[in-house]
Design brief:
mainly beta; 1 helix; single chain; about 5% helix; 4-stranded mixed β-sheet
């Protein structure tokens, strides 16, 4: 099957149907794509939330990712590395935050308002 551009109404040509011109955007405010078998992208895909089999991934403007549901990782996980000086300069740290402290060579977690060694 050939790749096609979505059909749009060309208001510059008597409101006739035309393929979306290459390089244009398809504005779908308050609309959805449903029952799609596959969606492929060769660039950046931007979304506020992504639901994958009832596991919800959502982000914030601060760059935080929230996963609602169980997350299984089949690969390596790397956490942010900080020196003790960088760690102590962090603000707004929430209980449950985990870092790797390169000064002490230890994983550390934030609990009860203080950093504690996890090993």
């Amino acid at each position: 099957m050939a790749d096609r551009f979505p059909l749009v109404i060309d208001t510059t040509n008597g409101n006739s149907f035309a393929e979306l011109p290459d390089g244009d955007n398809l504005l779908m405010t308050n609309s959805s794509i449903t029952n799609a078998l596959n969606i492929s992208a060769i660039g950046t895909t931007t979304t506020k939330a992504l639901d994958v089999n009832d596991v919800l991934f959502s982000g914030t403007s601060a760059g935080n990712l929230t996963v609602t549901g169980n997350l299984t990782m089949n690969g390596l996980f790397t956490t942010k590395t900080y020196s003790t000086i960088e760690r102590d300069a962090l603000s707004g740290v929430a209980n449950g935050t985990i870092i790797y402290n390169a000064s002490d060579n230890k994983f550390q977690g934030y609990a009860g308002g203080t950093w504690v060694d996890l090993h």
